[in-house]
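Input structure tokens:
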């Protein structure tokens, strides 16, 4: 069974930085794309960023482009989301996901709360 466990969420002031991590287990990590999604209160879950199995391709939502960076360490079975210049509208539960490619995800983590205060 695939397990994805997020960590690193928390409270930060606007303009600050935070890094969330996602540790994966249960299948060959390097064989799958990874992604980050978020869901704010009262809103639908939305795509944030994704990365191909070897890190060669990354994709970002327009709202985070230039501020967030997705990366992965296949030796550690971990994917990261570095978030800089955070805004209050980035407040959400952040979920990592794993899938066969950057457009399709079949396993999800439990989520990590990120709160940005103004």
């Amino acid at each position: 069974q695939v397990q994805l466990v997020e960590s690193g969420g928390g409270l930060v002031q606007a303009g600050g930085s935070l890094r969330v991590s996602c540790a994966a287990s249960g299948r060959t990590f390097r064989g799958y794309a990874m992604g980050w999604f978020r869901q704010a209160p009262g809103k639908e879950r939305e795509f944030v960023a994704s990365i191909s199995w070897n890190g060669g391709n990354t994709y970002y939502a327009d709202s985070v482009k230039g501020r967030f960076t997705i990366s992965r360490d296949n030796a550690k079975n971990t994917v990261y989301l570095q978030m800089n210049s955070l805004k209050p509208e980035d407040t959400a539960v952040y979920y990592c996901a794993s899938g066969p490619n950057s457009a399709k995800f079949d396993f999800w983590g439990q989520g990590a709360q990120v709160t940005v205060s103004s």
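The two ends are 40 Å apart (CA to CA). The mean pLDDT is 96.
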